[in-house]
Amino acid sequence: MKTNSAQHTFWPIEPKLKRSKKKLLTLSPAKPTIVYDIYWQFAAERQATFFRRAFGEPQPWTQDEILQTYKFTNAYRASDRVSQYLIRNVIYNGSQDVEEVFFRTILFKLFNKISTWELLVRECGIPVYDTRLFEKYDRVLTQAMNQKKTIYSAAYIMPSGSRKLGSTKKHRSHLQLLELMMKDEVPKQISDLPSMREAFELLLSYPMIGDFLAYQYTTDLNYSEICDFTEMEFVVPGPGAIDGISKCFKSLGGLNETEIVKLVTDRQEDEFKRLGLQFQSLWGRPLQLIDCQNLFCEISKYSRVSHPEIKGVANRTRIKQKYSVTEEPIAFWYPPKWKINDRIENTQSET
């Protein structure tokens, strides 16, 4: 890989690639840029880095200096630290009653911050749905904010308070939103729905939940036993993914971003083969729509350094978050219905 910056040296993940004329035809009518190839290189190396670290190999886990310098999410959304915490410590830690799992999941995701969840657990015990406890949750979070503690993750922007719910305080409005959904029996409604799209549309109908959050929340709930939608059914590209797509394609050829994500996800095996990349799947689970959507968001960031001359629709030039190894190792564990946890144990016992 080449860069115009004299401050960085970039090691290629694979030898220099030749553009395939056949690929242009199979992606027709969309017309890719060189960043489209980098998208697949990034996915393969980020996943390889994940495995090297997960199985205790010494640093450096990659020779790609961009990956060494900046923070990127994993190739698989469910492998990210917050998702792993949600799956193991929130969704599957406590009653598996539909109502309780929904309540814990959405309460966690409203703030999307591990330290906020652990604060609530310390002060209130493992959260349970009880209308009498909302006031206590409010007091704990208000006190934390008064102490200048950050209770929201910076991963994505949460909407401010909604007057529709009777409060202008952001965290209070979110608690009221959850209380409203519980009163409306949304957990049971979602468990009865036949498709991911319908669950998304139900969540979207509530105040302060737009397309992006509704899709993220539906994906998170789908890690549980409340529902069992395929992640290949439905996708909603977020702003970061849309920017990444605009860098990977000089023309969508009349397709929209959702169709592009679906096209790319369907082509993953062919593209890794075409580029000579050895992609290590998640113990046999291929990339899903949500993962390829996230990868477009990450390539939006990565290409700001690797290919700064290619401008996206967001026109951003810097990657804000630097990578630092300060966190405890994760014992990876995924939704049991995926049937990959036994494979993880078998792999670890062999190493």
Identify the notable features of this structure and list them briefly.
two-stranded antiparallel ribbon, mainly alpha, disordered N terminus, 2 strands, about 50% helix, single chain, 2 domains, 16 helices, about 350 residues
Care to describe what's here?
The chain has 351 residues and is mainly α. It folds into two domains: 21-77 and 235-326, no CATH class; 93-221, no CATH class. It contains 16 helices and two strands. The chain has helices at residues 21-26, 34-54, 65-69, 81-91, 98-111, 114-124, 134-146, 170-183, 186-192, 196-204, 211-221, 239-248, 257-266, 268-274, 289-306, 341-350, and strands at residues 31-32, 249-251. Helix 5 (98-111) packs antiparallel against helix 8 and helix 10 (196-204) packs across helix 11 (211-221). 35% of the residues are buried.
